[in-house]
Structures are given as structure tokens and as C-alpha cells.
Write a structure and sequence with these properties.
The chain is of the alpha+beta class and 322 residues long. 49% of the residues lie in helices and 19% in strands. It has 7 helices and 9 strands. It starts with a helix and ends in a 30-residue tail after the last helix.
């Protein structure tokens, strides 16, 4: 009987010990309450104990937590509507204050929404679109020179640049953080960082921006096509000039060769005439016959004509010989 009683007592003690014991992880911090009143906080990892039933151990994280805001449509200072998506990182630095003002981690998301979202809207509406997009006035590498291709460009020909950046994206993020951080500290929350994750145009503005980008790309393409046509015409012109030069040089060379040949021929004819004038006259007359008369030629001349003297028969000593 005693053994059963001792066993029951031991079991009860183990059960009570199990109910009273709790562990604290490295990423956790615990607030112990008694009848909803805070008794103590435990931030050291390890095994701890509390009174059963009347005390509760409320566990809160002490590492960084995520907050991801809902994308919202916000107008900028220059009346351009954009979609803004923001995220933040936060942690609980005062678990007692957090418990008294917020209560549970699931409610912290609502508190963050109530403070960060209006702060983001305030900074976006107070600055121009360019401030929320860029950080500096560094010239973008993707700009194309849309001038007329000459070295001398007028102000009208110069490409359009963005306006000056005076604040920039990073300073807007820092401003949101500095403005929201003191408000969240009243809830035992430390806001570690806030960043604008994404900025995008609303659909109407996006379409007009895309149309403008397409028009600019077409303008650049037309410029390249015009330059290509100009270069092609230049190459064709150079080809024509080179062809004419070659033809001119060839014609000059041919004329020189022909002139030399004619001179040589004349020289030979002159030498032949000097050796036998009668034979020379005979040969030249035959050439005239060949050029003037053909198979179907008809010619009426007097028999006394000089041209027919070899056809009638020539009684000269030279021609009459075979």
C-alpha cells in the first residue's frame, strides 16, 4: 500500500514539475505573468520554472522579424501615380511593454501597418517621382545620342536628360525609418530597417511610358537606318568613281597602244610606198574594193574611172606579173 502511495506522490510531483518547467530558446524571451500581471522577464536561454496554474509563461521572439507591406497606389509630388511596395525588419526589445501595449506577435503586424504605411505615403507624396526612383544624378549608360550625327549639335538636338535629384531613394528610406521608429518604440518594438522594395507605374501611366520608350527606340532605329543608307550611298559613289577611273585608265592605255600601232603601221606603209609605189597603190586599191564592194553590192561607174583600172586589166610591168 505504501508503495502505491509513494508511486502516486512521485507521479504527482513529476506532473507538477512538468507543468512548472519551461525552456527558453536562444531566439526567445519570456514574460511571466500572475493573474495577467507581469512578475518577471526571462531572457537567458535554459530551463526555468513557474508556479503552476496561477503563473503563465508568455514567449516572444527576440530575433529579427519580417514585415511586408501591401502594395499601394500613391501619387507623387508631380502628380504621377505609382505602385509602392515596402518591407521592413523589426524586433521586440521590451517584451513587458510589448505585452502591455500589443499583447501578441500576431497583432504586431497591424501596428506596423498603421504606422509604416502612412509614413511611406507621406514621403512619396512629398517628393517627386525621380526622387523615389534614383539615388544620384549619375548619367545613365543606356542613353542614346539622338542628334543629327554631326559634330556640331544644337540644344534642340541634344538628348533629354532626367531632372536633378536632390533627395534620392536612400534618403527617403532613411526618412521613413527615422519617422516611424520613435512611434514603434512606444510599443516595445525597435524598427531596424525600412526599404522600398519596388516602385512601378500604374497601368495608365505605364502604357504611356512604354509608348514613349517604343517611339524613342523607333527614332534610334530610324537614325541607324538613315546612317546605313548614307554609308551605302557613299560606298556606291566610291565604287562608281573607282570604276570610271579604271575605265578611263584602260581607255587611255588602249588609245596609247592603238596610237603606237597606227604609227607603226603608217611607218610600214611609208616604207612600203618608198620601195614600190605601184605595188602600194595596188594593195590600197584592193582594200577599197574589200570595204566598198560586197556580194550584193551594185555600183555604176564610168569605165574610165580610176578605181576600176585594176579590174580592166593593168598593163603595167609590176601588176601584170603573177
Amino acid at each position: 500500500m505504501k508503495a502505491k502511495i509513494l508511486l502516486a506522490i512521485a507521479g504527482a510531483l513529476v506532473l507538477i514539475l512538468f507543468i512548472c518547467a519551461y525552456t527558453v530558446d536562444e531566439t526567445e524571451q519570456v514574460v511571466v505573468t500572475r493573474f495577467d500581471k507581469v512578475q518577471r522577464t526571462v531572457t537567458t536561454p535554459g530551463l526555468n520554472f513557474k508556479l503552476p496554474v496561477i503563473e503563465k509563461a508568455l514567449v516572444f521572439p527576440n530575433n529579427l522579424q519580417e514585415w511586408d507591406g501591401d502594395p499601394g497606389q500613391i501619387p507623387t509630388k508631380d502628380k504621377t501615380y505609382i505602385w509602392v511596395n515596402t518591407f521592413a525588419r523589426w524586433k521586440i526589445v521590451d517584451p513587458v511593454l510589448f505585452f502591455k501595449t500589443v499583447g501578441y506577435v500576431s497583432r504586431a503586424q497591424q501596428r506596423l501597418d498603421e504606422i509604416i504605411d502612412p509614413t511611406v505615403r507621406n514621403f512619396i507624396t512629398s517628393n517627386r517621382l525621380i526622387e523615389a526612383v534614383r539615388n544620384s544624378n549619375r548619367e545613365l549608360d543606356t542613353f542614346e545620342d539622338l542628334g543629327d550625327g554631326t559634330d556640331q549639335e544644337t540644344e534642340k538636338d541634344k538628348p533629354v536628360r532626367f531632372s536633378q535629384v536632390f533627395v534620392g531613394r536612400d534618403k527617403i528610406d532613411t526618412g521613413i525609418l527615422n519617422q516611424a521608429k520613435p512611434k514603434l518604440s512606444n510599443f516595445g518594438i525597435e524598427l531596424v530597417d525600412v526599404k522600398i522594395k519596388r516602385v512601378n507605374y500604374v497601368e495608365e501611366v505605364r502604357k504611356s511610358v512604354y509608348d514613349r520608350m517604343i517611339a524613342e527606340r523607333k527614332q534610334i532605329a530610324q537614325k541607324f537606318r538613315s546612317e546605313g543608307k548614307g554609308e551605302a550611298q557613299k560606298i556606291l559613289g566610291e565604287k562608281e568613281r573607282e570604276l570610271k577611273r579604271i575605265e578611263s585608265e584602260a581607255y587611255r592605255t588602249a588609245q596609247e597602244v592603238k596610237g603606237k600601232a597606227d604609227a607603226e603601221s603608217t611607218k610600214l606603209y611609208a616604207e612600203a610606198y618608198g620601195l614600190d609605189p605601184e605595188f602600194y597603190s595596188f594593195v590600197k586599191t584592193l582594200e577599197v574594193y574589200n570595204e566598198a564592194l560586197s556580194e550584193n553590192s551594185s555600183i555604176i561607174l564610168s569605165t574610165d574611172s580610176e578605181i576600176f583600172k585594176y579590174m580592166k586589166g593593168y598593163e603595167g610591168n609590176t601588176v601584170g606579173r603573177p
